[in-house]
């Protein structure tokens, strides 16, 4: 078929050349020269919450259920809140110490008053909130390779390191044979055997599409042949950019706007001759797993995430461990959450990913979640005033530097 197409193209080109040889030259175009198109300046995206701007908002009214559910998650987050550096620039570890001490002493039934009165509520930036959902899927798998279980699930390789490449960028990569830091293997590289025979196989999945969506979720359960369950937790990523395949299908008109939910994407992939393999390879990001034996999947703070309470956020705009209030156009996502996780696609201010746990309800809710609305952070008192002072100082310094 390709040979016939090429012959047609050559023949058409020859006919076009012959026609041009006998056609009189076109008269020159006269008239005013159209004005040059001047591209509109593109404002740089803010690097963190301080650059995006933060403003005080009035506290919202919580339900008792929301507050009581969020309190244990906030307590679990407190050690990390007090210890880690906050890349959002909004808080310091010492800011959280009084709140964490108080949270430890809150009695049952008093969580609502604690969250409503002991924090200041703040809005970061001016964009509307956008919330998606994730869950803990269960797929068929085996600890050892067997007929029907041939898709390897990999541990984190030892040669995946942080290093500085020749272009000056520092991130996850590997040191090649010349001692140079280069990007790590892509999904296609790994599927083609880049990690074979290295003893990195943690387990084996029955279906590559199912495993792909476990990677997107970041954790999952393997239903083993004997009926037992092996839990998988996120352990690393190859450093490659995450490409959303649902977005690709919408942009290409394969699936309609609003129709690219998880089930429709899976159905389209399974209908392809290659089982969706080429589409999955357009997302070069690859996730490495470890076996979990604790109470649940672990989030970015290395604590178990809680269904209907944990939300993934961008730590450059939301302090990890902080409570987050959502009011969106999907009522089931309204209420108080705790930022305990991150995600490759969760970038920017007011971008969140709500965790729904495991099971059919969790899968349906998370798979169809695409909610817009409002988001507020609950922060230690005095945070916003300090942030605004820092913003003003940075603006003055930038203006002074710009003066001739």
Automatic annotation (TrEMBL):
InterPro entries (alphabetical): 3D_dom, MltA, MltA_B, RlpA-like_sf
Signal sequence interval, chain numbering: 1-25
Domain Lytic transglycosylase MltA as annotated: residue spans: 138-290
Main enzyme class: lyase
Record bears the keyword Lyase: yes
Catalysed reaction equations from the record: Exolytic cleavage of the (1->4)-beta-glycosidic linkage between N-acetylmuramic acid (MurNAc) and N-acetylglucosamine (GlcNAc) residues in peptidoglycan, from either the reducing or the non-reducing ends of the peptidoglycan chains, with concomitant formation of a 1,6-anhydrobond in the MurNAc residue
Pfam families per UniProt: 3D, MltA
Keyword entries, A-Z: Cell wall biogenesis/degradation, Lyase, Signal
CDD domains the record matches: mlta_B, mltA_like_LT_A
UniProt xrefs under SUPFAM superfamilies: Barwin-like endoglucanases
Xref: SMART domains: MltA (SM00925)
UniProt entry tagged with the keyword Cell membrane: no
EC numbers on record: 4.2.2.n1
Protein name, as recorded: peptidoglycan lytic exotransglycosylase
Organism: Sphingomonas arvum
């Amino acid at each position: 078929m390709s040979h016939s197409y090429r012959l047609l193209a050559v023949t058409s080109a020859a006919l076009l050349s012959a026609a041009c040889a006998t056609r009189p030259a076109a008269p020159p175009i006269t008239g005013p020269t159209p004005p040059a198109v001047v591209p509109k300046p593109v404002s740089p995206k803010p690097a963190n919450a301080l650059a995006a701007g933060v403003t005080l908002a009035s506290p919202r009214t919580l339900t008792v259920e929301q507050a009581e559910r969020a309190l244990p998650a906030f307590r679990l987050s407190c050690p990390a809140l007090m210890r880690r550096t906050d890349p959002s620039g909004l808080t310091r570890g010492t800011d959280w110490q009084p709140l964490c001490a108080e949270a430890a002493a809150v009695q049952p039934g008093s969580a609502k008053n604690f969250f409503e009165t002991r924090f200041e509520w703040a809005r970061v930036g001016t964009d509307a909130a956008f919330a998606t959902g994730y869950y803990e899927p269960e797929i068929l798998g085996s600890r050892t390779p067997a007929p029907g279980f041939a898709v390897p699930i990999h541990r984190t390789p030892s040669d995946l390191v942080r290093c500085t490449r020749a272009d000056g960028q520092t991130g996850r990569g590997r040191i090649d044979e010349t001692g140079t830091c280069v990007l790590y293997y892509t999904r296609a590289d790994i599927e083609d055997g880049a990690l074979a025979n290295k003893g990195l196989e943690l387990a084996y999945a029955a279906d590559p599409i199912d495993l792909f969506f476990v990677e997107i979720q970041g954790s999952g359960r393997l239903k083993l042949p004997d009926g037992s369950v092996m839990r998988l937790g996120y352990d690393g990523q190859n450093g490659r950019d995450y490409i959303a395949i649902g977005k690709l299908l919408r942009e290409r008109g394969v699936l309609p706007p609003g129709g690219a939910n998880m089930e429709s994407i899976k159905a389209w992939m399974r209908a392809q001759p290659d089982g969706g393999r080429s589409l999955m390879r357009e997302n070069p990001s690859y996730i490495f797993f470890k076996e979990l034996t604790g109470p649940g999947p672990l989030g970015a703070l290395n604590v178990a995430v809680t269904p209907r309470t944990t939300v993934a956020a961008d730590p450059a705009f939301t302090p990890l461990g902080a409570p987050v209030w959502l009011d969106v156009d999907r009522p089931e996502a309204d209420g108080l959450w705790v930022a305990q996780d991150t995600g490759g696609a969760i970038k920017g201010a007011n971008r969140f990913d709500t965790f729904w746990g495991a099971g059919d309800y969790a899968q349906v809710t998370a798979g169809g979640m695409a909610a817009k609305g409002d988001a507020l952070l609950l922060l230690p008192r005095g945070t916003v005033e300090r942030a605004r002072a820092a913003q003003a100082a940075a603006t003055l310094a930038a203006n002074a530097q710009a003066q001739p």
